[in-house]
Structures are given as structure tokens and as C-alpha cells.
Amino acid sequence: MWGVFGGLVTPAPGGHLIAGGDADLPYGHPAAPWFLANQLVVELTRTARLPEP
Asked: Are 33 and 4 spatial neighbours (Cβ–Cβ below 8 Å)?
């Protein structure tokens, strides 16, 4: 697992939340408490292209 995909959410006056645009965020990022994730992001490593048939 590399991280998550979703949007940054910031608090606004009156207890409302403002959602930012779509972005990806790696695990351990300091903005994680303010990030609303909706998908996992997986990094593929040690992959190889198959030869053409």
C-alpha cells in the first residue's frame, strides 16, 4: 500500500467543512488528519512487461 486517494478537508466557521480537490496522499503524511480518503493507492513494484504473442 502506498497511500490513499481523496480530498483535503478544512474546517470553516460555523462547524462547516470545505472539501478541496482530488489528490493522492502517501501514508504518514502530516496532512492525513485533514484528508478524507475514498480509495487506496497501491504501488506495483518488480513488475515486468510480458512478451508479445
From this structure: no
